[in-house]
Structure formats: structure tokens, C-alpha cells
Amino acid sequence: MEKPEKLIVDGKRLDGRAPDELRPLKIEAGVLKRADGSAYVELGANKVLAAVYGPREMHPRHEQQPDIAVLRCRYAMAPFSVEERKRPGPDRRSVEISKVTREAIEPVLFLELYPRSVIDVFIEVLQADAGTRTAGINAAAVALADAGVPMRDLVSAVAVGKVDGTIVLDLTKEEDQWGTTDMPVAIVPRKKMITLLQMDGHFTGAEFKQALDLAFNACERIYEAQRQALRERYAIKQGG
Ligand code: UDP
Questions:
Q1: How far apart are CA 70 and CA 59, in angstroms?
Q2: In angstroms, rounded to a whole number, what is the distance separating the alpha carbons of residues 57 and 51?
Q3: So where are the chain's domains?
Q4: Backbone angles phi, psi at 193, to 5 degrees
Q5: Whose CA is nearest to atom 12 of ligand 1?
Q6: N or C terminus of the chain with fewer C-beta within 10 Å?
Q7: Entry pTM
Q8: What tens digit of pLDDT does each residue of 17-67 get?
Q9: The ligand 1 atom nearest the CA atom of 132
Q10: Which of 42, 46, 82, 181 to mutate to test the pocket of ligand 1 (most atoms within 8 A of CB)?
């Protein structure tokens, strides 16, 4: 796609959103029969599935940790999820995202409860429009809770950035591509602890603070949607 002349016109973004507006968000828990826990997240045009298996015995055994469970995360993009077909299999980007996803989630888990075990989190991006790593973290947190894995809290995540000199929430692919800054953030909401913060581009100190405030506010809303998805899942179970 060619660079649009302007990404913000009369204070509105190309998709009609205000700078501090989140894309439409949908979260559903317990969508896969064979996984121990699962979740589906739509954020604008992003569609992401997370499946959790475990805690279960770690194989290969030489990767077992004697005192704790290992959290294993695998982020993958379907070949049809992006405009230009993505070659299947891991690449540098998916290895990096798998690693930062694990680091974003680990602090809320009680891994010491399950020595020699593994908890597997598979994140599958079915459709991508920027913000897939944060959508994946949101889905993974709900899937872990759905699996009954003991957690201190959920993890909520969103990207913020700068486009045409304006601080914006939840960038689209166009904004990510043509904007100046993209900063994905993950938060443990109750502790207000940041477990992921990456930045592509630059901010002044004041812009950074404004962007981080925006991310914290949006994560409150995402947290509520995550909890609502779990409440709905639980209500369905109760009804049989
Ligand atoms: N993307 C793509 N092909 C790729 C990788 C990424 O088209 O091989 C697109 C996709 O829409 C993705 C966006 O670029 O969501 C931004 O990617 P980035 O690496 O910033 O991660 P994300 O914002 O998805 O967490």
C-alpha cells in the first residue's frame, strides 16, 4: 500500500477513531474442546487464538526444571493472516515475540507449584492488522485462567504510538507502517506492573508519559473485557 498523505484528518484517524480510542474488542474464553484452556480475541481486524496445555510433565525430560514449571510460549502467524503470504514455520520475528510473550506472562504464574512440569501456550494469529503480540498476550492470559492455572492476576496489553505528531492508542497496520513510533505495553493491572515494553521509534519524555498513561487506561478496559469473558464462560459451565 502507498503511504497516505495524512494519517490523521480533522483530529480523526483513517478508520474514524479518535486518537485515544481502542478498536472494537471481542474476547471469548473456552473456544477449543481439546485444549485445557483457550481464548479467542478480536481487536479490530486482528483475530487471534490461544490454546493452553498443562501443567503437564515436561518432555523432553532434560528440559525439566527441578523446582519450577517451565512456561513455553509459541507465537505463530498463519500463512493467510497477512497481505503477503507468510512462510509457515518460525522466523526471527516469531521467536522474538514468543520470548517477550513468555516474559510478559511469567510474573503472574506460580511456577513453583509445578516442579518438572511444562505449561504450553500456543498463540495462533489468524488475521493480522498490527498489535498481534498484544492481542496474543490478552488471549493467552484468558486461556491460562480458563485452564485453571493459578494466577496472581491476568495480563492486559495494548500498543500505543505516534502518528503525524499525535499520540495514538492501538495502531492499525497503516499507522504502524507509516507512523513514527510503535510501543507495545503489557501490564499486570492490579499491581500496575509493566511486564512488556518495547519501542520502535522515539518519544520525548512528555510523549512517553502521555503514551504510557493512554496504555494504562486502555488496559483497564481490556482487563474488564477479559474478566467478563471468563465470567461468561463460568456461567455457561454452571448451566451445564
Ligand atoms: N506483518 C506482516 N507480515 C509479517 C509480519 C508482520 O504483514 O511477516 C504485519 C502484520 O499485520 C502485523 C504488523 O505487520 O500485525 C505489525 O507487525 P509488528 O512486528 O509490529 O507486530 P505486532 O504489531 O503485530 O505485534
A1: 11
A2: 17
A3: 8-239
A4: -100, 135
A5: 130
A6: C
A7: 0.97
A8: 999 999 999 999 999 999 999 999 999 999 999 999 999 999 999 999 999
A9: 24
A10: 82
Q: Within 13 Å, how many C-alpha atoms sit on residue 221's CB side? A: 15
Cβ(157) – ligand 1 distance below 6 Å: no
**Grid coordinates 511456577 are at which residue?**
111
In ligand 1, which atom is closest to the CA atom of 133? Answer: 25
**Residue 212 to residues 15, 145, 154, Cα–Cα distance (Å):** 22, 26, 19
Angle at CA of residue 24, ends 19 and 28, nearest 5°: 145
- Please indicate whether residue 47, judged by its CB atom, sits closer than 6 Å to ligand 1: no
What does the pLDDT look like over 221-234, one tens digit per residue? Answer: 999 999 999 999 98
Assess whether the C-beta atom of 133 lies below 6 angstroms from ligand 1: yes
DSSP secondary structure of 29-76: E---SSSSEEEEEEETTEEEEEEEEEEEE-SSGGG--SSSPEEEEEEE
State the CATH class of domain 8-239: alpha beta
Q: What is the pLDDT of residue 2?
A: 80
> Cell numbers 493480522 correspond to what residue?
128
Residue nearest to atom 3 of ligand 1 (CA): 82
**What are the strands of the beta sheet with 166-169, ordered from one edge?**
166-169, 156-163, 181-188, 193-197
The candidate with the shortest Cα–Cα distance to 98, out of 127, 137, 131, is 137
